[in-house]
Amino acid sequence: MRLSDVAKMLGGSLDGDPSADIRGLAAIEDAGPSELTFLANPKYRKFLDTTGAAAVLVPEGADAATLRRKGGPALLRVADPYRAFLLLADEFYPPAPEPAPGIHPSAVVAGTAVLGKDCSIGAHAVIGDGCILGDRVSISPGSVIDSAVRIGSDTRIMENVVVKSSTRIGERVTLHPGCVIGGDGFGFTPKSDGSHEKVPQRGIVVIGDDAEVGSNCTIDRAMIGETRIGRGVKLDNLIQIGHNVVIGDHTVIVAQTGVAGSTRIGEQCMIAGQVGIVGHLRIADRVKIGAQAGVSRSLGETGGTYSSSPAKEHRRAMRIEGGIRQLPEMITELRALREEVDRLRGSREGTSTPSGEKDPS
Amino acid sequence: MRLSDVAKMLGGSLDGDPSADIRGLAAIEDAGPSELTFLANPKYRKFLDTTGAAAVLVPEGADAATLRRKGGPALLRVADPYRAFLLLADEFYPPAPEPAPGIHPSAVVAGTAVLGKDCSIGAHAVIGDGCILGDRVSISPGSVIDSAVRIGSDTRIMENVVVKSSTRIGERVTLHPGCVIGGDGFGFTPKSDGSHEKVPQRGIVVIGDDAEVGSNCTIDRAMIGETRIGRGVKLDNLIQIGHNVVIGDHTVIVAQTGVAGSTRIGEQCMIAGQVGIVGHLRIADRVKIGAQAGVSRSLGETGGTYSSSPAKEHRRAMRIEGGIRQLPEMITELRALREEVDRLRGSREGTSTPSGEKDPS
Amino acid sequence: MRLSDVAKMLGGSLDGDPSADIRGLAAIEDAGPSELTFLANPKYRKFLDTTGAAAVLVPEGADAATLRRKGGPALLRVADPYRAFLLLADEFYPPAPEPAPGIHPSAVVAGTAVLGKDCSIGAHAVIGDGCILGDRVSISPGSVIDSAVRIGSDTRIMENVVVKSSTRIGERVTLHPGCVIGGDGFGFTPKSDGSHEKVPQRGIVVIGDDAEVGSNCTIDRAMIGETRIGRGVKLDNLIQIGHNVVIGDHTVIVAQTGVAGSTRIGEQCMIAGQVGIVGHLRIADRVKIGAQAGVSRSLGETGGTYSSSPAKEHRRAMRIEGGIRQLPEMITELRALREEVDRLRGSREGTSTPSGEKDPS
Question: What value of ipTM does the predicted structure carry?
Answer without folding.
Answer: 0.92
